[in-house]
Amino acid sequence: MQAFHSLFSARPGLACLSARLNAQIITALHDYMPSENDLQPLLAWLAVMEKAHSNLARLQRDLCWGHLPRLFTAAVSCLLSPHPQVLAAATQTLKALLSECVAPHMAELGPVSASASGPASQVCRMFRAVEEGLTYRFHAAWASVLQVLQAFFEACGKQCHPFMRKCLQSLCDLRHSPHFPHTSELDRAVGAAVASMGPEVLLQAVSLEIDGTEETLDFPRSWLLPVIRDHVQGTRLSFFTSYFLPLAATLKSRAAELAQAGKSLEAKIYDTLQWQIWTMLPGFCTRPTDVAASFKGLARTLGTAISERADLRLTVCQALRTLISKGCVMDAERAEVGRFAKNFLPILFNVYSQPGDAAGGAAHRRSVLDTIRTYLTITEQQMVCGFLEKASEKLTGPESIEFTRLSVLDLIVAMAPYADEPSLGALYRTIQPSLQSKEHGVQKKVYRVLEEVCAAPRLPCQAFVRSHLEELKRDLLGSLQSAASPAKRPRLKCLFHVVKQLTAEHEDFVVALVPEVILCTKEVSVGARKNAFLLLVEMGEAFLRFGPTPQDAMQRFLLLVYAGLTGSVTMISCTVLALTRLLFQFKGLAVAEQLLQNVCLLLGSRTRDVVKAALGFLKVALLLVDARLLAKHVQTMVSRGGGAAALTTGSLPGVRGSCPQGHRGPILALRWMLPTPVPGTHARPGLQRGGPDEAPCPQQLPGVTVLRSAARCLGSERPGEPPLPGTHPAPASRSQLPGEGGSACLGGAEQCLRGGAHGQGEMVQG
Questions:
Q1: What is the model's pLDDT at position 401?
Q2: What is the pTM of this model?
Q3: 546: Cβ–Cβ under 8 A, 6 or more apart, which residues?
Q4: Which end of the chain is more exposed for a tag (fewer CB within 10 A), N or C?
Q5: Considering only CA atoms, which of 483, 489, 409 is closest in space to residue 445?
Q6: Could you check whether the bond before residue 548 is cis, i.e. omega within 30 degrees of 0?
């Protein structure tokens, strides 16, 4: 059996193994089928037969299909085995045969009926063999049978549903039987039938038995509603309009009648049923087959539901987004749905502009705004410009309250990327005064408008930025002092997109931005810090564009950044953060040596934040910079300033006094790189090399390797392990890489860079 398995798994060509010989081997193997109680031989036989049929299907499909019914019958009989391993193997074999031998060729057959002949008749025989597993003698293996039926529906349901309807009826009857233990497997099998055949075929075979006139509240088939909801796709949208919409309306009316009669429980049940019907709509809007012909019959009902039915608003908005993103593939479909933008967008605008309670809460407003953004993608530009003009008028109206202004600005943010250049110019003149607004929320959203326009890939937006570049530069620089903290994130992103389009004649503008960008690397907002680092890198890229050579351009840019090292403590630490990000981004431009020389000077500072930032820079440098270059600066890195002097003497109190607490362990490891203490100093008793208070000497490690190992130690405790002796873990909010996670603390800067280095080399603990 092992030889046969290897032969068929190798998938030999016709010259080595012909289709006829393959079929003869299959016939011979049937004569040697082990007993259901012989565990190991039967498992091997099933594995070989699966590979044999898969290889035969590759060589000659029709010949393979002629042998499949016999194997299906044999594999189904294996489900009667008392061994769970045999059940699992037989189930896997049947599923593999369906996916590898049957499913790839079903599209060639077309519709298959119970009276079909030729290869199609073999599919009927295979299905009858599996359907036999629903009889009571297989009740111990029903879970496996249902898995195989699910695979059969997925592979053949679209073409073979005419002879599968009886099986669907049997499944529904089986689920209704008392204490049926496999409801989840059965629901998945029926769900596979819904996905492949469509809900219309399912409900023709199995009625829903819900019409709003029931005398009892049993609803034995109500379980079909969530099954259809979770699996329906690629079907006719008109079926929802013709079958489910009238049923939902009937159930809603019935619920209202029962509520008026004081029967609140019965009313709640009917209301839940009609709501479950509506939740199917997003599935019907997923790749429907008749969008162009059917949407107009549904549009009015959807608009009414959005404006009048708060309980359905989330569902209907989700359905519209799904229809536009997944259902409108052809231009005709997009045009048909876009034709109703003049009806849907005003409704959505009105709902979004209502106060929170009237609009259904924050979740409803977010859903409505997302739907507006999605619908704008298929709306004609002229219509968008008209809506944008009306929104601008409402924004400047004297009667508008703050909530209205903020809501209108949200709508303008959504519409602006889809407007033409003249409309964008008029909008810019309208919102210019708000850049200096004292209302922080308004100022933030005005910057969001500019951010969306500057970032939009559409030609009108790009043309607007080019034609208004000088105005944008003047306004963005002029609002530097008045920019509120909440507006920093969109403001920095707007500057990022503006800088991307600058040429050499605009270098003065980039130079003027440097101080603000450096300070923003320690903003409270994570988004602002992230955008600050992105802008910093883009400014470096701009200088590279300005020329004349990459090295000269980067030197000019670094000189601007170095100026921050002469400022306040906050400015110095922010500058070191900026230099760290620039080292990471432009390490290939020979800037490392100059950066090391400048930052090492800060190791002697008596200010905690400065030393912490400088040590963080070194950690990043140790993981990035070439070892030969680092070797030239080893003595400088470990001996610079008072803290380094204390390090060389072995004085732990001296180290504590000049560096952050979280760096003590790796700092002790660095001591092993110095041959002798600095003359004139004394080591503290009890802290000798190799003593109990010090990390063991990392034998046979060169200096740079020790440095790198120490860098990896910083903040590298694994979850669940205690921190390094004498250290404290860095706060969670300070653990992101500058420019990537936007952290303001360089103490965790190496974490993003350590991804490929963690665990390499020795871990030196202090």
A1: 81
A2: 0.80
A3: 503, 504, 507, 553
A4: N
A5: 409
A6: yes
Whats the size of the chain, residue-wise? 766
The full 3-state SS of 151-171, as one line of letters, equals HHHHHHHHHHHHHCHHHHHHH
Q: How far is CA 60 from CA 14, 25, 101, 253, 377, in A?
A: 10, 15, 10, 59, 48
Helix (H, G, I), strand (E, B) or coil at 670: helix
Reduce the DSSP state of residue 182 to 3 states and report it. coil
pLDDT of 357 reads 58
Residue 765 DSSP symbol: -
Tell me what percent of the chain is helix, strand and coil, each rounded to the nearest 5.
75, 0, 25
Which residue is it, tokens 């016939």?
27
How far is it, in rounded angstroms, from Cα 619 to Cα 598?
A: 15
- Torsion, Cα 649 652 653 656, to 10 degrees, reads 110
Give how far the C-alpha of residue 706 lies from the chain's centroid of Cα atoms, to the nearest Å: 39
Helix ranges, 232-263 (H):
237-239, 245-260
Annotate 717-749 with b (16+ C-beta within 10 A) or e (fewer).
beeeeeebebbeebeeebbbbbbbbbbbbbbbb
Q: Provide the pLDDT for residue 477.
A: 84
Domain map (residue ranges) of the chain: 2-163, 567-717+729-766
Spell out, as residue ranges, where the chain has pLDDT lower than 50: 641-656, 658, 666, 669-766
160, 166, 170, 172: CA torsion to nearest 10: 70
Q: Are 195 and 233 in contact (CB under 8 A)?
A: yes
Q: Report the distance separating Cα 614 and Cα 601, nearest Å.
A: 9
- What are the Cα distances from residue 391, in Å, to 394, 464, 727? 5, 19, 57
From the list 323, 238, 240, the residue with the least C-alpha distance to 277 is: 240
Hunting for tokens 């009015």 — which residue is that? 300
pLDDT of the residue at 358: 56
Conformational region of residue 212, where left means phi above 0, alpha means psi within -120 to 50, and beta covers everything else: left
Cβ neighbours of residue 435 closer than 8 Å, sequence gap 6 or more: 443, 446, 447, 475, 478, 479, 482
Q: Which residue, chain included where needed, has tokens 């800088």?
A: 499
CA torsion, ordered 451, 453, 454, 460, to nearest 10 deg: 180
The residue whose two tokens read 């009238």 is 246
Structure tokens at 78: 């294996």
Place of tokens 């036989």: 45
Alpha helix (H) residue ranges in 114-244? 119-131, 142-160, 165-175, 183-197, 199-205, 224-231, 237-239
DSSP for 733-754, please give it: GG-S-TTTT--S-GGGTHHHHG
Query: pLDDT at position 25, please?
Result: 94
- Taking the C-alpha atoms of residue 340 and residue 206, their distance in angstroms, rounded to an integer, is 36
- Cα-Cα-Cα-Cα dihedral sign, residues 578, 584, 585, 591: positive
Alpha helices, H only, 261-380: 264-278, 281-284, 291-294, 296-308, 310-322, 331-338, 341-353, 356-359, 362-376
Closest by CA position to 497, among listed 408, 560, 585, 417: 417
Dist CA 712 CA 698 (whole Å): 14
